[in-house]
Amino acid sequence: MVEELVIAVIAAVCACGLYAMAAARVVRQYERGVVFRLGRLQEGIRGPGFTTILPFVDKLHKVNMQIVTMPVPAQDGITRDNVTVRVDAVIYFKVVDAAEALVRVEDYRFAVSQMAQTSLRSIIGKSDLDDLLSNREKLNQGLELMIDSPAIGWGVQIDRVEIKDVSLPETMKRSMARQAEADRERRARVINADAELQASKKLAEAAKEMSGQPAALQLRLLQTVVAVAAEKNSTLVLPFPVELLRFLERATPAEAVQAVQAVSGAVQAAPSPPAGQPAVAAPTGPTGPTGAATTADAPDAPDATEPGAPEPGAPGLAAPGLTTTRPKVSSVPPSVPASAPPLDEESQKRQDAQPV
After folding, report:
1. What's 271-296 look like in SS3?
2. 3 state SS of 331
């Protein structure tokens, strides 16, 4: 009898131990327990720590209350301005009511993921490309509201939604690159034009100051020459005014005309001989005072063929007995180069027509 009693006690203890092991449950700090007894939801949510249930009668479901980070698969869509883009996002949510998350929806994770994908497609179709690229905060708020509205009935709260990446076609990337380059070039030209305007004003002020002192311009030129000559491998080019070249081109004919006029003036300054005496020639020698061979003769009557000579019988002829002399240039002065161009026909006529 005693042995049978001991065996019965040991069996009862083992049964109690097995029952306690089957009934005991541990809920972690970040979890909440939902008990279903014979398929019916029990009132109250089991908190963290040790708890017990009725074995083979109750069933405990543990729900994670942490914030869940779920990536949203990339979605292809067409924006409002007809640009094909590929957008992916990430969503942060958490369960606020464990019983509703188990009763209202079969799988709240899958439900939130599908809602996030459909909402992302809707946001892409309602937005422009510029908004997707630069105004993401507003789109994130709109996407969060679209997902959070149905998720409230599931016992789930959407913490935040972030658009992670926007993929563009290669053609659109090249177009945007050209647009950005053109905009930067436009800004560079505007800045350069503004700099030129300011520089021109400063140069105008500098020119106004230098106009009072002409030597300042020469000093500035010398400073520029010194600055350029400091580099050993530089070539110095000095500007040469074109007006000076034109003056040199006109210098040779002008000197020839001046020489002829000087000879004519010397002959005119000589005193006239008395009536009845031959005219005295210029100083002896092959050349006159200016280096030109000259002769003075006194013809009885002027040559009718020469330009400027009065016709016979015309009024204004000299009285009989008066002798007039006219210089004749026999050769070009030696100072005039042989390559100099001939004198003008009009100037030659004017010189021949001058009376002595």
Report:
1. CCCCCCCCCCCCCCCCCCCCCCCEEE
2. coil
